[in-house]
């Protein structure tokens, strides 16, 4: 393995050629998973003492491994939460890999951190956050929620001056909150008190107030965070951020907004009002790898006051002391160490693909792409409403549509879904709504057209 090895130059050509072909592909293949046995039969053992060689390994990836992965950027990938990275962001992801940059500290990664911070500042400005705001890109919403909630608990304990250091905290979240919130509570050994949602699945201020007033005095003191969702994953519903913000300010409780999927729409004027109140949150997250057109993996975690994150997360060690000389105690902190504000240390400059794409296209292009997906979601909702064998179950807040195929059993939904994937038509999976199996579209790809929906909806005419 030598830098001037002709074999490496050859592999670089081949890998770049494949990558550029994949980036230019239109349409991309949908593809589908294969079983372990099928893969083992075709691929065999690739890790050997002598190596199988880069040519063979790359060919196996191209011919077998990559086609056994569903392309999240396929316009008819409408299951879970897809992604639709811009060409610019994907190209720059390659540049980041080639650059050997460590972006845990300002000392080592100042240039990368500076650029990442400008992308974060765009999000902070969209939210109306003050100058004290700042954050970091972490691997995903799960890591972002955990880091924000650890910071929330840290501030709660700090304010109590040691009195609550051994008290188990409580976070209040709705039943519609993402599973990662319960997982964060599990990791933190904290409790989640669920607040009931309205019939649309939305958490409002009254429900939060009722939960708070129902707690004993000692339990009330244990509450360190209230979590709202800015676009629930199953239904795309935005909680009453403004009302919940008011309660959090009045009660002095950390307000965290999980917007992994939905907060991308902050840049879309047609739905911006749904997020009123976000300017009073203490922290929020949004995943660029979901609806902000960046590749995996990327979650923007933004604190209203970056020092809340720093106090909770800075790692101290002899070999790291040199990094903590010039920290401001309050106010804007421009030369922050990205490692210091989340639950991590070494990190890839995973915010740079978003930064490069934003710098390339400008923020207006993001607004336009976002409005394109919202428009097609509204048109698809209208198409569902117009078909007698379908029933739209919820008027969409954002770009998730949940609907019933009248008369189908759970098995029929599953058979239809399997058939769609196996024939390369679409990737749509059933979900449940109030205990009933139904269908769900999640639309984040500006390349998804009404023609795609017409084909998919037509296929629902035939019972599998
Ligand atoms: C997807 C999602 C998460 C988890 O994000 P990952 O990046 O998959 O870890 C958390 N919250 C919400 C609302 C989500 O939609």
Q: Look at the structure and name the CATH superfamily of the largest domain.
A: Type I PLP-dependent aspartate aminotransferase-like (Major domain)
Percent helix, as a range, is 40-55%
Percent range for β-strand residues: 5-15%
Bound molecules: pyridoxal-5'-phosphate
How is the largest sheet built, in terms of strand order?
1-7-6-5-4-2-3
> Which descriptor suits the 3D outline?
globular
- As for the number of domains, it is 3
CATH architecture of the largest domain: 3-Layer(aba) Sandwich
CATH topology of the largest domain: Aspartate Aminotransferase, domain 2
* CATH class descriptor name of the largest domain: Alpha Beta
Secondary-structure-based class equals alpha/beta
Q: N-to-C SSE series?
A: HHHHHEHEHEHHEHEEHEHHHEEHEEH
Query: Termini separation (Å)?
Result: 54 Å
| Low-pLDDT residue intervals, each spanning 5 or more residues | none
Q: For the residues shown, what is the average pLDDT?
A: 96
Number of helices: 16
Largest sheet: 7 strands, mixed
Say how many strands there are.
11
Cα gyration radius (Å): 23 Å
Q: How would you describe this protein?
A:
There is one protein chain. With about 475 residues, the chain is α/β, with parallel strands linked by helices. The chain has three domains: about 60 residues, no CATH class; about 270 residues, Aspartate Aminotransferase, domain 2 (3-Layer(aba) Sandwich), CATH 3.40.640.10; about 100 residues, Aspartate Aminotransferase, domain 1. Helix content is about 45%, strand content about 10%. It is built from 16 helices and eleven strands. The strands form two sheets. A seven-stranded mixed sheet has the order 1-7-6-5-4-2-3, sandwiched between helices. A four-stranded antiparallel sheet has the order 8-9-11-10. A hairpin with a 7-residue loop joins β8 and β9. α1 runs parallel beside α3, α4 packs across α13 and α8 runs parallel beside α10. The protein starts with 5 loop residues before the first helix and ends in a 5-residue tail after the last helix. The mean pLDDT is about 95. The site of pyridoxal-5'-phosphate has 13 residues, from α6.
């Amino acid at each position: 393995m030598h830098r001037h090895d002709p074999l490496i130059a050859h592999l670089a050509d081949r890998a770049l050629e494949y990558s550029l072909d994949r980036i230019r592909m239109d349409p991309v293949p949908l593809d589908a998973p294969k079983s372990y046995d099928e893969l083992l039969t075709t691929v065999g053992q690739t890790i050997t003492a002598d190596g199988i060689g880069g040519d063979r390994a790359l060919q196996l990836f191209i011919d077998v491994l990559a086609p056994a992965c569903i392309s999240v950027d396929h316009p008819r990938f409408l299951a879970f939460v897809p992604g639709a990275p811009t060409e610019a962001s994907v190209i720059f992801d390659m540049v980041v890999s080639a650059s050997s940059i460590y972006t845990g500290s300002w000392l080592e990664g100042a240039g990368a951190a500076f650029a990442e911070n400008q992308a974060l500042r765009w999000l902070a400005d969209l939210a109306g956050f003050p100058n004290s705001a700042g954050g970091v890109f972490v691997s995903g919403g799960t890591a972002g929620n955990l880091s924000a909630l650890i910071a929330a608990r840290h501030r709660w304990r700090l304010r109590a001056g040691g009195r609550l250091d051994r008290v188990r905290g409580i976070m209040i979240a709705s039943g519609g909150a993402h599973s990662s919130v319960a997982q964060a509570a599990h990791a933190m050994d904290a409790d989640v008190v669920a607040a009931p949602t309205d019939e649309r699945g939305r958490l409002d201020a009254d429900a939060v107030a009722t939960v708070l007033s129902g707690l004993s005095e000692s339990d009330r003191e244990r509450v360190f965070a209230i979590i709202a969702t800015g676009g629930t994953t199953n239904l795309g519903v935005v909680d009453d951020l403004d009302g919940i913000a008011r309660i959090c300010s009045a009660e002095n409780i950390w307000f965290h907004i999980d917007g992994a999927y939905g907060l991308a729409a902050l840049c879309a004027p047609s739905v911006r009002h749904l997020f009123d109140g976000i300017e009073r949150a203490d922290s929020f997250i949004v995943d660029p790898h979901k609806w902000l057109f960046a590749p995996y993996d990327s979650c923007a975690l933004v604190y209203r006051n970056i020092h809340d994150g720093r106090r909770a997360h800075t790692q101290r060690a002899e070999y790291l002391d040199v990094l903590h000389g010039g920290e401001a105690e309050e106010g804007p902190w421009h030369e922050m160490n990205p490692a210091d504000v989340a639950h991590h240390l070494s990190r890839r400059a995973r915010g740079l693909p978003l930064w490069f794409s934003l710098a390339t296209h400008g923020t207006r292009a993001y607004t336009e792409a976002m409005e394109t997906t919202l428009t097609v979601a509204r048109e698809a909702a209208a198409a569902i409403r117009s078909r007698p064998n379908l029933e739209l179950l919820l008027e969409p807040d954002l770009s998730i549509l949940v609907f019933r195929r009248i008369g189908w059993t759970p098995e029929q939904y599953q058979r239809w879904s399997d058939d769609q994937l196996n024939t390369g038509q679409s990737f749509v999976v059933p979900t449940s709504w109030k205990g009933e199996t139904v269908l769900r579209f999640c639309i984040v790809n500006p390349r998804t057209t009404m023609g795609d929906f017409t084909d998919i909806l037509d296929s629902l005419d035939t019972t599998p």
